[in-house]
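Severity: low
Component: inverse-folding endpoint
Summary: output formatting inconsistent between runs
Steps to reproduce: submit the following C-alpha cells with default settings.
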C-alpha cells in the first residue's frame, strides 16, 4: 500500500493561504507531468475479444466476479475456456459500428483530457497489427482495421492525450505468468509456465510489442498491470522495461502497476496507480490516479445492470482532485463497437457539469485546509490571491456550511454556476457560509471563495 500523506490540519491564516503551493504541482510545471496534473480526468476503455461473449459463455454467466474481460479464465467456471475455444471469438470480432471519432468526441464532451485503451489485455489479443504475433485484430479477425491507429488519429484531431494499457505480466495466449485455466478448488494445481517460457515471451512478445506501441502511435503514457509480487516480474525485469520505454520515448509516462507493491517502485515511475476502484482518503504528494468502473465490470458485461449514478462518479472525480489525484473512468464498449446507452447517459451528465464547473478541476491544486464533512475543496491562485473551490455534495438542512480552519475574511463568495453572491461569517474555528435559497445542482454545487494576502 502507498503511504498517504495527509495535509496538516492546522489552522490556516492569510499568509499561509496566499502562499500555498503544492510541491508536486510546482515540479510538474517544469517536466513531462504538467499535462497530467492539468488534466485530472480521463477515459479508460476495455475492448477486445472478451467483448463478444460479454460475460456469458455457453448460456452461463461467468464465475468468480463480474470482470467480463477475464472470461477466458472465468467462463465455464472453475475450469475456464480452453484456449482453442476462446480464440474462436476472433472470428466473431467484427465491430462494424466502431467509430474512433465518435469515441473521442464523447470523451472530450464529458470533459476528459486523455484516453486509455487496452491495447493488449491478459488474453494476449492485440488491437493493432503487431508484427510479432498473428493474434491481432488485422490477422485474426474479419474486421481487419487498426483500431489503435484510428484512435491515435482521432486523439490528435481533438487534442486528447493517448495512452495504452499493456498486460506485460499475464498473457494467456502466449505463455504468461499464470496457467491458462485455474485449478479446481481442492484439486491438483495446474503447472505454471516455467521461467524459461516466460523469458521467451518477455523477449519475443512483450518488449517488441511495447516498442511497436511507442514507435507506431507515440502514446503519452503506458498503463501496465500487476497487483502483487510475481516470480516472473523480477526487479531486473521491471528496470529493463522502464529503461526500454525511456529509451524509446522519454516523454511517455509509466505507472506504478508495472510492479505494484514492489519496494521503491514509486521512485522509478512517473505516477502511482491505485488498485481497482480504490479511492484514497488523504493527500498523496506524488501524482496518482484511480481507475474506476461505471458498473461492476471493466469489459462489457451483458448482465451487469449495476450502473453507478452520475453523482457518485462526480464525487470520485472531485475527491481525487482535492487530494492531488486523477480519475480514469472506464467504459466497456459492446461487441459492435458502440458504447452502452447507460454509459453515454452518464458521460453526458458529467459533461454538462464539467462545462460549468471544469475550472475547479483542471489544473487545480489539492485542498490546502482541512477535510470537510459536506464535500471537498481545490484551489488556484497566486502569491497575492487564492481562489478556493468548495464542492458541496451534502446540502445541510440548516442552510449553511462551515469551512473548518479557514480564518481569513474572504473578498467574495459566490456560486460558480449562477454567479450568486453569498454571505460569509467568520467564526472561531472557520468560515460559515450561508447557502443559496435554491440549490443550483442536485449532485454538486461549486462555491468559490476569493481570498487576498
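Observed output (run 2 of 3):
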Amino acid at each position: 500500500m502507498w503511504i498517504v500523506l495527509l495535509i496538516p490540519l492546522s489552522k490556516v491564516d492569510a499568509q499561509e493561504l496566499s502562499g500555498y503551493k503544492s510541491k508536486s504541482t510546482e515540479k510538474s510545471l517544469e517536466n513531462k507531468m504538467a499535462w497530467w496534473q492539468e488534466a485530472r480526468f480521463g477515459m479508460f476503455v476495455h475492448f477486445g475479444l472478451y467483448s463478444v461473449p460479454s460475460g456469458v459463455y455457453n448460456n452461463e454467466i461467468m464465475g468468480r466476479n463480474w470482470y467480463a474481460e477475464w472470461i477466458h479464465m472465468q467462463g465455464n467456471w472453475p475450469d475456464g475456456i480452453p484456449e482453442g475455444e476462446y480464440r474462436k471469438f476472433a472470428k466473431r470480432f467484427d465491430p462494424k459500428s466502431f467509430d474512433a471519432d465518435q469515441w473521442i468526441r464523447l470523451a472530450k464532451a464529458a470533459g476528459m483530457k486523455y484516453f486509455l485503451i487496452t491495447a493488449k489485455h491478459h488474453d494476449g489479443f492485440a488491437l493493432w497489427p503487431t508484427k510479432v504475433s498473428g493474434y491481432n485484430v488485422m490477422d485474426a479477425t474479419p474486421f481487419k482495421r487498426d483500431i489503435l491507429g484510428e484512435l491515435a488519429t482521432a486523439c490528435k484531431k481533438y487534442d486528447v492525450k493517448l495512452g495504452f494499457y499493456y498486460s506485460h505480466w499475464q498473457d494467456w495466449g502466449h505463455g504468461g505468468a499464470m496457467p491458462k485455466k485455474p485449478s479446481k478448488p481442492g484439486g491438483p494445481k495446474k503447472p505454471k509456465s516455467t521461467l524459461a517460457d516466460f523469458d521467451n515471451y518477455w523477449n519475443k512478445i512483450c518488449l517488441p510489442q511495447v516498442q511497436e506501441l511507442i514507435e507506431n502511435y507515440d502514446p503519452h503514457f503506458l498503463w501496465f498491470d500487476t497487483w502483487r509480487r510475481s516470480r516472473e516480474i523480477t526487479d531486473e525485469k521491471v528496470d529493463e522495461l522502464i529503461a526500454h520505454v525511456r529509451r524509446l520515448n522519454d516523454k511517455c509516462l509509466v505507472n506504478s502497476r508495472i510492479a505494484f507493491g514492489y519496494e521503491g517502485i514509486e521512485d522509478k515511475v512517473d505516477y502511482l496507480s491505485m488498485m481497482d476502484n480504490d479511492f484514497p482518503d488523504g493527500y498523496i504528494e506524488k501524482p496518482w490516479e484511480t481507475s474506476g468502473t461505471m458498473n461492476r465490470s471493466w469489459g462489457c458485461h451483458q448482465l451487469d445492470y449495476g450502473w453507478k449514478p452520475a453523482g457518485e462518479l462526480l464525487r470520485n472525480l472531485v475527491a481525487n482532485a482535492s487530494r492531488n489525484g486523477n480519475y480514469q473512468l472506464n467504459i466497456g464498449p459492446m461487441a459492435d463497437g458502440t458504447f452502452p446507452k447507460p454509459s453515454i447517459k452518464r458521460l453526458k451528465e458529467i459533461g454538462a457539469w464539467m462545462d460549468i464547473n471544469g475550472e475547479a478541476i483542471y489544473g487545480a491544486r489539492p485542498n490546502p485546509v482541512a477535510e470537510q464533512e459536506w464535500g471537498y475543496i481545490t484551489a488556484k491562485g497566486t502569491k497575492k490571491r487564492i481562489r478556493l473551490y468548495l464542492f458541496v455534495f451534502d446540502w445541510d438542512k440548516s442552510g449553511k456550511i462551515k469551512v473548518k480552519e479557514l480564518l481569513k475574511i474572504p473578498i467574495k463568495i459566490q456560486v460558480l454556476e449562477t454567479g450568486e453572491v453569498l454571505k460569509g461569517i467568520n467564526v472561531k474555528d472557520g468560515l460559515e457560509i450561508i447557502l443559496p435559497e435554491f440549490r443550483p445542482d442536485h449532485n454538486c454545487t461549486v462555491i468559490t471563495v476569493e481570498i487576498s494576502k
